[in-house]
Design goal:
220 residues; mainly alpha
């Protein structure tokens, strides 16, 4: 995956700073490094303490910056948490790709990928990020940009793999990847919202139509 794994949140403070045009290239480089460090450390803390609340002070201490750097670079802690959640998801997605490449056939690919996705440690954080995008409209564009990045990268991976293996899908690749991830993320949101059952009750493999040849069905 060659695209950037994090997307800068253009807060009002950062916009004013950019419009002023007073930052030097070195300052901008330092700013980008600080933003990335904040995202990476937040993702690490969330992974180490799934479901626990992580404070701004803890994040700043882990990243070696002052707490006000969080709002300076991201506008809010919630925005930073969205970035961190999707960074964790993209890291997990790389592991899913490795699992997918090892599958001997399309049926094994569907089973193995679905099982691995539902066990990804980043899913709870991503569910919270999606909920934040719903409850806080200012975060919705940030969530959307990360989702579009995930969809593009997944589509590129599936395209390359199916081309090499001679596999096919019964719908356009863009629809295939969006349907798959929407099903997986929707299942996690339902479980976290209190719906009866677990993600293990979901037939996520059935959301994939990848098959070995044009005559085969999705349950081959």
């Amino acid at each position: 995956m060659n695209e950037p794994c994090c997307i800068t949140y253009n807060s009002g403070v950062e916009k004013k700073r950019t419009e002023a045009g007073s930052t030097s290239p070195r300052s901008r480089d330092r700013g980008r490094a600080t933003r990335r460090r904040l995202i990476e450390e937040t993702a690490r803390l969330c992974k180490e303490r799934p479901g626990a609340e992580v404070s701004v002070a803890e994040i700043a201490n882990a990243a070696g910056v002052f707490p006000n750097q969080v709002t300076y670079h991201f506008g809010s802690k919630d925005s930073l948490l969205v970035h961190a959640a999707f960074l964790g998801l993209l890291h997990d997605a790389r592991r899913i790709e490795r699992i997918g490449r090892q599958a001997p056939d399309a049926a094994a690919f569907r089973r193995n990928v679905a099982r691995a996705v539902l066990a990804m440690p980043s899913l709870p954080s991503v569910a919270r990020a999606l909920a934040a995008g719903i409850s806080k409209p200012e975060l919705a564009p940030v969530v959307d940009r990360h989702l579009q990045l995930l969809f593009r990268q997944s589509e590129r991976f599936v395209s390359q793999l199916t081309d090499r293996r001679g596999w096919r899908t019964r719908r356009p690749l863009s629809v295939e990847t969006r349907t798959f991830w929407s099903t997986a993320l929707g299942a996690v949101l339902l479980v976290r919202a209190g719906a009866h059952g677990t993600v293990a009750d979901l037939d996520l493999a059935g959301a994939l139509t990848i098959h070995d040849d044009s005559a085969a069905g999705p349950s081959d």
